[in-house]
Amino acid sequence: MAKSLTAQDTRTLRPEERSIFSYMWKYKTLYILALPGVLYFILFKYVPLFGSVIAFQDYNIFKGMWDSEWVGLEHFRTMFEHYDFMRILGNTLLIGLYDTLLAFPAPIILALLLNELRLIFYKRVLQTVVYMPHFLSWVVVSGVAVGILSPSTGVVNTFLGWFGIDPIYFLGEESYIRSILITSGIWRDSGYGTIIYLAALAGINPDLYEAAEVDGAGRWKQTLSITLPALLPTIMILFLLHIGKFMDFGFERVIVFLNPLNTENGEILDTYIYKAGLLQQQYSYTTAMGLFKSVVGLMLVYIGNLISKKTTGESLY
Fold first, then answer.
1. In 72, 93, 144, 258, which residue has its Cα 20 to 30 A from 79's Cα atom?
2. What pLDDT is stored for residue 10 in this prediction?
């Protein structure tokens, strides 16, 4: 019965629709397995997007989204005219830029170094060691950083004391906060990216290296001519995903390091949205700010995808 119905349905479809339907029916088991993940993104990622409409309203929690007064672009104007907005935006852009320049290449370099290890046991041990911090919460990471950078008992200040340098309260000086944020992020998350790149490296045909050796190419030449070009598709896809989060550095990874002494250089849009939106209940204003972040991220992904497609042939879509 099911087969006859399917055949009858497919006869009423256009050829291209019939091919799509046949393809989906052929791999129906995979689509069923993917269904929970698809539903998760629909319910918790896409449906909440409709709430962005309050960015154009003077939202009142008692009136709700449907009865709140419409104010158009008023909150966006207020955002750009805010006396502190340019400082916070500048912090977000600078930290995002440092993260792209320093943190993004870190797992690539680490994967290339681990790939050169010939003893499988040590290679697996090191993979595990560099990957383990990824499972730590930012609260734990900040606790580790505070302990290491402590002006009285920290390892760093103890080392500086050997050279006669007075203790430095790193988390109490605004000039160090950006470096601490980027360094802690590299330590925590580089292992995750390294695993991805190592998986891509495992797919490279060993015959290519053997042929390069016969031609007299050393390890450095092989890396430049074989390894990096083979990794390029993976690098470009992860880079495009990375720049999509350029302005979404993460609330939790910053707030745990912030204090009144380093807020000047450490506060970003995410932490400001938390303070203004949740603590001060400026829901519409901070939704407008979040929408601004999303639009910028979308533009960066689109431009980056376009450039990547024209230069390397790799793209997200």
1. 258
2. 46
Whether the per-residue pLDDT at 108 is higher than 70: the answer is: yes
The pair of structure tokens assigned to 72 is 């158009």
**Closest Cα partner for 238 from 45, 99, 41, 104?**
104
Other CB atoms within 10 Å distance of the CB of residue 312: 13
Q: What 8-state DSSP symbol labels residue 204?
A: S
Q: Give the total number of structural domains in the chain.
A: 1
* pTM over the 0.85 mark: no
Q: How confident is the model at residue 3 (pLDDT cuts 50, 70, 90)?
A: very low
Residue-wise DSSP of 54-111 = GGGEE--TTTHHHHSEE-TTHHHHHHHH-TTHHHHHHHHHHHHHHIIIIITHHHHHHH
Q: Count helices and strands (H / E) in the chain.
A: 18, 2
pLDDT at 2 over 50: no
CA 119, CA 140: separation in Å to the nearest integer? 32
Nearest to 152 by CA among 142, 160, 141, 143: 160
Structure tokens at 7: 């055949």
Q: Per mean pLDDT, which range of 3-7, 30-34, 79-83, 100-104 is the poorest?
A: 3-7
Length of the chain: 317
Q: How far apart are CA 74 and CA 285, in angstroms?
A: 9
Q: Note whether residue 64 is domain-resident.
A: no
Relative orientation angle of helices 105-115 and 177-202, to the nearest 10 degrees: 50
Q: How far out from the chain centre does Cα 217 lie? A: 36
Tell me what the pLDDT averaged over the chain comes to.
87
Is residue 25 one of the residues assigned to a domain?
Answer: no
